[in-house]
Amino acid sequence: MRAMTETLTGPYTLEREIKKSRFVANAAPVHTIEDANAFISAIIAAEPDATHHCWAWQVGPHCRCHDAGEPSGTAGRPILQMITAQKLDLVAIVVTRWFGGVKLGAGGLVRAYGGTAAECLREAPKEELIERIRLSFHCPFSLLSLMQARMQDWTGTESAPPEFDSTGAQIVLTLPAEQQEMITHRIQDLTSGQTTVAVVEED
């Protein structure tokens, strides 16, 4: 059985003081690498007086981390490891530090950044990350009202506004991937096999 992957339901902030240094972790769900970079830039811009803004993100198979001036490997990588350890995806986190005058040493920095990130991610509200796909099909005008009524009963399925042509409407549904076979059969049953259901490939 594949381990369940989760993401955050919204932004979350946690603050700790470690040997007079102030650490603030800001984490948020992101959908793309661009989202992650924008979130990190916003945090950095909001706290220009901070000593360091160390960060990491995980977006599907892609990940990145940054030490932001701390000794190599003492900040960004420990933060990223906490994302991985908690089986999270589509997440960005920035751990901001205000230096308090006491040096922590390499091991202390790893524990401070990693520990602050871990606590923030552990406490943040989460939800299961469900793989979703898009299906496209054509529905003739004679069946459109029936189809739209049935679609309202398909839990977890969202419909884009239909695109009309001379014979009916092209409909695109977004749904959990595990429901693909069931929904495809329902569409074909309702149209008596008159339509072809295709998966819409992501750009």
From TrEMBL:
Domain Impact N-terminal: 19-121
Transmembrane segments: none
Protein name (record): Thymidylate synthase
Swiss-Prot/TrEMBL GO biological process terms: regulation of translational initiation
Organism, as annotated: Acetobacter cerevisiae
GO cellular component, one term: cytoplasm
InterPro entries: EFG_III/V (IPR035647), Impact (IPR023582), Impact_N (IPR001498), Impact_N_sf (IPR036956), Ribosomal_Su5_D2-typ_SF (IPR020568), UPF0029_Impact_CS (IPR020569)
Family: Belongs to the IMPACT family.
One example GO MF annotation: guanyl ribonucleotide binding
Pfam families: Impact_N
